[in-house]
């Protein structure tokens, strides 16, 4: 009896501690959200407002990637659904694949992901596209253009200018 009560108390304590714990796992620097390991991540507020980078990623994805990977990351007969594959893709691998491209050749077909390392409309927005796709992979945002977004942070403007100049 005593033991059971203790177990319940411990469970309740763990449950109430959880939201605070989850909040601690990500932090932000001028509107850019990062995990505790400093990997870029998305943020969606209760009313559906997304952080700037997630919104920007939506736009970049739909100008450069959706022709092959389908709208909303859902895939096509030609290229995989990134809303699925991103569930198991590490940040570093994503950066590498998108910059360098990838080719799979089998007896019956060639599957080719072009490299975007030299395309600034992609390379200047790698993190944006990454966090957008992670939000889709985690089911944190629905299909379509996010209806509300945070204002563009000064850091994002500065980074963009520097990236296009360099
Ligand atoms: C011309 C068509 C095409 C475009 C445009 C394209 N991709 Fe791809 N992508 C592919 C194909 C095909 C594959 C599968 C390659 C393979 O089989 O190895 C792929 C694979 C990938 C993968 C690896 C998926 C996995 O299986 O783990 C990532 C990540 C990816 N693409 C991201 C992007 C992003 C981000 C963009 C936009 C900047 C983009 N792709 C634009 C065709 C494309």
Compact overview of the structure:
This protein is mostly helical and 166 residues long. The protein has helices spanning 2-24, 52-64, 66-69, 82-85, 91-100, 120-123, 126-137, 154-165, and strands spanning 26-29, 32-35, 40-41, 102-105, 110-113. The chain has one domain (27-165): Cytochrome Bc1 Complex, Chain D, domain 2.
Instruction: Determine the mean pLDDT.
Output: 91
Class, according to the CATH hierarchy?
Answer: Mainly Alpha
Please write the string of helix (H) and strand (E) elements.
HEEEHHHHEEHHH
Low-confidence stretches: none
Q: What composes the largest sheet?
A: 3 strands, antiparallel
- Distinct compounds present: heme C
Describe this structure in words.
The protein has helices at 2-24, 52-64, 66-69, 82-85, 91-100, 120-123, 126-137, 154-165; strands spanning 26-29, 32-35, 40-41, 102-105, 110-113. With 166 residues, the chain is mainly alpha-helical. The protein has a single domain (27-165), classed as Cytochrome c-like domain (Cytochrome Bc1 Complex, Chain D, domain 2). The chain has a three-stranded antiparallel beta sheet with strand order 1-2-3. Strand 1 and strand 2 form a beta hairpin. Helix 2 (52-64) crosses helix 7. The longest helix is centred in the N-terminal third of the chain and has 23 residues, at 2-24. The radius of gyration is 19 Å and the shape is globular. It starts with a helix and ends with a helix.
């Amino acid at each position: 009896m005593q033991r059971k009560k203790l177990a319940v108390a411990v469970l309740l304590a763990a449950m109430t501690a959880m939201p605070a714990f989850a909040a601690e796992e990500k932090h932000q620097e001028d509107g850019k959200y990062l995990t505790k390991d400093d990997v870029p991540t998305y943020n969606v507020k209760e009313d559906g407002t997304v952080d700037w980078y997630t919104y920007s990623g939506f736009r970049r994805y739909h100008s450069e990637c959706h022709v092959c990977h389908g709208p909303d990351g859902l895939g096509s007969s030609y290229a995989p659904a990134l809303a699925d594959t991103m569930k198991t893709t590490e940040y570093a691998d994503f950066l590498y694949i998108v910059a360098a491209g990838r080719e799979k050749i089998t007896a019956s077909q060639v599957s080719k992901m072009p490299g975007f390392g030299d395309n600034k409309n992609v390379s200047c927005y790698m993190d944006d596209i990454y966090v957008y796709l992670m939000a889709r992979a985690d089911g944190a945002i629905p299909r379509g253009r996010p209806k509300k977004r945070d204002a563009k942070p000064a850091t994002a403007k500065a980074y963009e200018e520097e990236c296009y100049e360099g």
